[in-house]
Amino acid sequence: MYFRKFAMAVAVFAAITVAHAASAADKMTLRKVTDDVYMMENGRGSSNSTFVVTGDGVLVFDFDVRTAPQVLAAIRKTTDKKVRYLVSSHSAGDHATGAWHFREDNPVYIASRPQARDLFMQEGREFQQRKEAGREGYKDAELVRPDIAFDGEMTLYFGGLTFQMTLEGHGHSTGDTTVYIPQKRVFLTGDLLDTEIHPGQGESSGVYYSVVDGWIRILDNIMARKLAVDTYVPGHGPVHVGRGVADLEEQKRYFVTIRDEVAKMVQQGKTLEQIKKELKLPGEFAKYKRASRLRNFIERTYYQVQEKGW
Ligand SMILES: [Zn+2]
Fold first, then answer.
1. In angstroms, rounded to a whole number, what is the distance separating the alpha carbons of residues 293 and 255?
2. Which end of the chain is more exposed for a tag (fewer CB within 10 A), N or C?
3. How close is the Cα of 203 to the center of ligand 1, in Å?
């Protein structure tokens, strides 16, 4: 009995060690989006990070405290210019915690106001808790909060490029922010677009903030701008260089499909548990990775359908 308990404890310890090792080993791979625009793709399907090199310095979009050192190393290999600006898409830990790693270059960190608020409230607290718990990546780092927070839109003219930042509203998270760089025909979506993977639920310190109708509305808003964009750079998943608006259309189809399927099953009187078990997605989405996120998303959608209809 004693030995069994001991063996179990060892097994649990080993599992925890493996889990930590797995997160520590998240490998970021450099992908060229277009000249001077690079996305670092997270090999496990966690958050990507993008950097743009200009004659006056570098702008970094999204930075996870666990993987930002790899992003900085890639920047140092690519250019001798300093990191001048940081922009985060939303306040989640996998996108807005890594600013500290760029401190040597003393960049200005820009975010939307809802993000800044989160970083002073629940996200700030979560960072502290993870640090105190000795979590990989967090234990030796500090949370660096934005220097500038904006509502609506903000345009940064930097290094001969225009960075049009838009607070798109509440879709994936409490305040999704995008960046359009017209000269590069590139649009950075953050988690409003995940490719080949089930989208995340806008987790912020253990609470899920994603709203399906808001997400669809935001995608419609972006598409209605009819921007000159070759590539929408995703928050998670591989970048589809040159696929353009088809990526946004696919993401919208995903949510419309789930919303309509859930609504149909609610009308049939099915329970959440039945819907979670029975809902099948068409082939183009069935091949997406991280299937556990789908069941969680069905739950989000179920409550939103109950609340607002469809
Ligand atoms: Zn994310």
1. 13
2. N
3. 8
* Residue 141 near residue 104 (C-beta atoms within 8 A): no
End-to-end CA distance of the chain: 56
pLDDT digits (tens, 9 = 90+) for 144-156: 999 999 999 999 9
Q: What is the CA radius of gyration of the chain?
A: 20
CATH of the domain at 110: 3.60.15.10
Q: Which residue range forms the structural domain that includes residue 53?
A: 23-245
Q: Cβ atoms within 10 A of the Cβ of 247, count? A: 22
Total number of domains constituting the chain:
1
- Distance (angstroms) between ligand 1 centre and the Cα of 45 equals 9
| pLDDT the model gives residue 247 | 98
Query: Per the domain annotation, does 81 fall within a domain?
Result: yes
List, in sequence order, every beta strand (DSSP E) within 77-230. 83-87, 108-112, 148-150, 153-158, 161-169, 176-181, 186-194, 203-204, 207-208
Taking ligand 1, which is a single-atom ion, which protein residues have CB atoms under 5 Å away?
47, 94, 191
pTM: 0.91
